[in-house]
């Protein structure tokens, strides 16, 4: 891997003794500081945090030590690193934590976390003090189906809000002034230098985080495509997490900058981008749900207008006026192309928000994890219980309780005839376990971890049940159909692109359970109709596959960038 610093052999050997994940977190933190502080030698103190914390790598706490040294933690490793960054412009220390300026003492306090730490550990450490949140959780746990009627009203309202005009976000060009008229954070613009002729060619891949998710799976694939096109991948993330995917071999020869917010920058300047553009010939930027990159797109286009910026969008969120698609619309002035994976998103951008049609391309993720060209129907073993599977993160969006309530309904109607598998982990693990125990379904629902081989789960499946309250087009639907397994899904997002009416269920939980029970009861007793459902879905998938795939489109685009 390419780095921007030097350490002595003894310190390098110590770092190499860390796990691969921790090594890359440390290297990312040191690379970040070395990029923005060319020529400086800094001392790095590494601390081991608790499982319920997240790593702190580049934020202002790494300067102040307020959650490490000032809390009495003792570093388990101390070393010095000298920047060998070839940045052409200097960066004067000018850090803020809120409105307080932080002095730079030439020391960086880096907090790591144990390799076995999970998001669940973090969630469990945050006590719920709000009476409203406690009431919400109590209602969700005690009457999940009835409570979802209330939630669906809120979802419908937010869907309407998401269609209202989104103002364009313009680059700020004035000082940040408080209510007293005092300048708090002066606007400081530094004109960046240009990379010398013959500099290495690179593409920035701006990801959400190094963790599992549909957007992340596609982002990881684009890293491979960038490398295959002859570019150096520079991968930047901006979301807190334990970052388990950072050890993935796909990142072995990439430049990795896992940033934690707030990063050390100032209004009007982006020191890390400035340093990168001064040392690399950066042809383009691919944005995958990375808020920091959206916020800095104006800087790139102001100083390097020839650099192409392309974002990939997967799902219109109910929150925040549409989630990342909202950010895409708001920053449209600085974006050259919006890649979407479903007709729903294409319609939302063009029809609801008047994005120029020539700036939107629908290139589905067909072929990303499965091949739909020559699949065959997976015959059911009639001597075994009918197996229904859930594959995905255990999070609110995926609505695990609707799957569990469906299992409860089927066990009541057909005792011993059905077996259910839930594969995935997330912050609703404890909630799902509680519901399974409450309804006496431990022998009916099998739990599998996210890292269990998904191919084996499809091999065991007779149907995939998608219980989500919101989706684009699920990768699991594509995978299941390609594995010969029919899909039953909530009628959300663009699922209707792949799933015919006879396989769709109404969105509200009580209706979803009713409809899912009806479909499952039918195909339990009619293998021919189970086959017909799959054949209808396969035909839709193959028609959808006639669109140029995301992989093919990005291969062609990156080749054009390189040529």
From TrEMBL:
<feature type="domain" description="Glycosyl transferase family 1">
    <location>
        <begin position="377"/>
        <end position="533"/>
    </location>
</feature>
<dbReference type="Pfam" id="PF00534">
    <property type="entry name" value="Glycos_transf_1"/>
</dbReference>
<dbReference type="InterPro" id="IPR001296">
    <property type="entry name" value="Glyco_trans_1"/>
</dbReference>
<protein>
    <submittedName>
        <fullName>Glycosyltransferase Gtf1</fullName>
    </submittedName>
</protein>
<keyword id="KW-0808">Transferase</keyword>
